[in-house]
Amino acid sequence: MIEMTNITKVYQMGEKKVEALRGVNLSIKEAEFVSIMGPSGSGKSTFLAIMGCLDIPTDGEYLFDKRKVSLLSDDELSHLRNEKIGFVFQAFHLLPRMSSLENVELPLVYKGIHKDERRERAKDCLTKVGLGDRIDHSPSELSGGEQQRTAIARALVNSPRLILADEPTGNLDSKSAEEIMEILSNLNQEERITVVVVTHNPLVAEKTKKVYHLRDGRFDEGF
Amino acid sequence: MRASDYIYLAKKDLRSFKLRSSLIITVLAIGIFSSTLNLYHTSKRQDELISSFSALGSQIISIWIQDEGISLSRLSFLSSYFPTISYEASCQKDIKYLRRLKNGVSIIGVTPSYKNVHSLSIKKGRFILPCDLKEKRMVCLVSSGLCEEFPIRVGEKIKILENKVRVIGIFKEEEQGQERIVIPLSTYQDIFLEEAKKYLQVVILTKGNPEFLQKEIKRMLERRFPEKKDRFDIFFQEGLLGLIKEQRFTSMLLILGIGLATLLLAGGGIVSLIMLSIKQRYKEIGIMRAIGAKKSDIFYLFLIEGALLSVVGVILAGGLSLLWLGLTPGFRLDIFLQSFLWVSSICLPLSLCGYYPSLQASRVSPITAIRVA
């Protein structure tokens, strides 16, 4: 499903060049549940952003479903993110002015789905993550765990093939973190969604089936 | 994304910035409201002037004298040349009838020949007689429209300023909404000393060539009052209409100019509101892009937000001015619509004020927005 070959990302910081990724290779198959571990500044978030088509690599080749991502237009990338990728961020990144339901509906709005249908689908997703009774609450009225579950519902609503979670438990207490990992694990097992989790927490990583270690922009030997 | 969804999201965003949005809408609405009111009143007044001149027929010559030294008696020589001649002066004053006040009624001081020159139709009572003029009698005729508003009857008294004036007749208005009171010119000059000094109008109805007569009258007046050549203006009807229309256009430009300045202010407000909104919602733009919004979705979302502010401002101003003007006597819907459309047409570009900031918003890189925030 994902083929990344020799991915490099260089940031220009004034006159200095910073190499965030130095020729990374990775292959992820359909329905895999993997985690990418690494200390702060190891390049794992940059790697996830490239995998999620939010950023473009300086060099290397990225194939998503055998399509060369570098050849896609901006609109095609938006379409790909909307239809095939779901994002879960550490800081939840819900829109504060909208209710849980409206937040979950949003990807369907960009897809052009009719109001009644998207409302139904959003409700189903919220029920799936155990928030069926909290649909009218705004993010500020929800706990951290509930906000993250809303974010997962938003990532799920378009039935994506890939969920990318960037430190999904980083802002949560251990009980909520456990619940979130349980949900992600279920999605992988029951719905065969490919899940990639970026984390620095070994307890989170051990819930996944495969762990990659990223250090100084490279995967550790053996991967 | 569907058009209705753009509006739904834009409305939601504007609602969450209530104070700022309301402020912009208020500035915009006040600008349109005041410009519409100004334009309406000016247009209505000039429209009435044009209609009254048009109603007189094509062979009318009007002399405007702006010198108190040129009195009625010194102008009487004109009567020997033109049998159908009327001497007039007018102003707007408040009147009272049975303790009820009416503001800004046209009071016209006239001579008895006014009735013939203006083909006035008397519905009740009589017109002003030479004796009324000679004895400066406190008498008047009121127009029928005024009688509908106030149940004034012949023989009763109304108050003009502090003067009690007896109603001796009721006449038919030439045009609806032209509510007037006619009093003897000598009485007018007695009551309204200051206004009477300002100008005197001589209206001549003639069968001759108006252009030729205009020149002849000018020559006669210049010979008789050589030191006051610049104190009188002579118009024949067509020339006068042209002048009024020209003046109407100039005042319209002036009002629209003032309106434009107010609207530019509101336009600047819209741009800064959207800019600020983009700055505050930088992270949100990144999130929206991450979950599938295209550049064009972001662009139209912010553009529609700006356009919605303008549309709400225009609708609010339209409703307010219609309500305000609709309550004034002699409201003219056609003039209101014309004035409102003129002013609103200036607002149209305001809807596009958000173009540049919206373009900026659409260019935000999703990953930078999420990371920076």
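Residues 174 and 180 of chain A are 10 Å apart (CA to CA).
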